[in-house]
Amino acid sequence: MRRIRNAAGRARPKQITVRMAIPMLGDITGVWEPVEAERKAAWELYAELATRISTVELGPEEGFLREALSSFYSLFGTTRDILRRYGPDVAPRRAAGHITFGALAVTVLNQALRPVLANWHPRLAAYESLRPADVDPVSYERSWEHAGALRAEITRVREVLVALANALAEVAGSADLLRPATTPYPPPRRPDGVS
To answer: Which of 172, 177, 146, 169 is closest to 40 using CA atoms?
Structure first.
């Protein structure tokens, strides 16, 4: 893979191969040869994804399902804004087997996020509307009989968003912002007692 350098001297790929599995759609595979507008758009969307709960693993007793769905939903507005701002430069016409920022972003929205939101947003809203006033929202949500199924869907979508984020980071020439920047302090002890 040939790389080009940006103004700060960071290497950015001239092209990358994208492979993503989207539930109910299948695999998206293709070559992405980003133009400068796509690199800038990739950075903007990557920064959004890296700072949202939608790309953070949600443990069984962590987080709030409503917040996760809201985070997914807000990606539509963010992505539309980026697409409008950069215009057709982020969706140039390409041969079959080639990917663009625009096509990739819209596919993830419409094929990975939209089906989950269309199914689960109204179901969760209906359940939330029945919450008694004396029950806190977190306890009520966690007692929902469908909470586990929704968490599984959130995990599947999260995997798609992380794959998208990784492709965007590579195109933008960015470090991996999805992993912690430092090791915990004090360092965890190994089983033999050594730190």
So the answer is: 172
The predicted pLDDT at position 146 comes to 97
Q: What is the pLDDT of residue 46?
A: 94
For the chain, the average pLDDT equals: 84
CA–CA distances in Å: residue 121 to residues 51, 79, 127, 136: 22, 20, 10, 19
Q: Are the beta carbons of 4 and 90 closer than 8 angstroms? A: no
- The structure's pTM equals 0.81
Q: What is the residue whose two structure tokens read 């968003």? A: 161
At 67, list the tokens: 């917040």
- Please, which residues have CB within 8 angstroms of residue 70's CB and are 6 or more apart in sequence? none
For residue 143, what are the CA distances in angstroms to 109, 127, 131? 29, 11, 11
Q: Let me know: does 98 contact 11? Beta carbons within 8 Å.
A: no
Cα–Cα dist 128/1, whole Å: 50
Q: What is the pLDDT of residue 87?
A: 95
* 8 Å CB contact between 58 and 142: no
CA distances from 136 to 16, 55, 65, 69 (A): 47, 26, 14, 19
Distance, CA of 17 to CA of 21 (rounded, Å): 13
pLDDT (tens digit per residue) in 32-81: 889 999 999 999 999 999 988 778 777 777 788 999 999 999 999 999 99
Q: What angle do CA 149, 155, 156 make, to 5 degrees?
A: 95
